[in-house]
Amino acid sequence: MREIDVFIDTEEIAEFFYQELINRGFIPSEDEIRELADVTFEYLLKKEIIAEEWED
Fold first, then answer.
1. In a domain? residue 26
2. Domain tally, the chain
3. What is the dihedral of CA 28, 35, 19, 49, to 10 degrees?
4. pTM attached to this predicted model
5. Which residue, among 51, 17, 23, 22, has the nearest Cα to 37 in the 3D structure?
6. Which candidate, 48, 47, 40, 46, places its Cα nearest to that of 17?
7. Which residue range(s) make up the domain with 37?
8. Mean per-residue pLDDT over the chain, rounded
9. Is the CA virtual torsion 42, 17, 4, 1 positive or negative?
10. Would residue 52 count as lying in a domain?
11. What is the pLDDT of residues 21-45, one digit of tens each?
């Protein structure tokens, strides 16, 4: 399997969830959306779909 670089932006995830939930009739708070984005990021890490890298 080949490796590719993928950049995950939790703010982009948060905006996606916000729009999707609004479209489905929910009114999430900003804090709830940020938590969902963080949980999604952690899920991707746990499933080893992504790997977290830190730049110096």
1. yes
2. 1
3. -150
4. 0.80
5. 17
6. 40
7. 10-46
8. 91
9. positive
10. no
11. 999 999 999 999 999 999 999 999 9
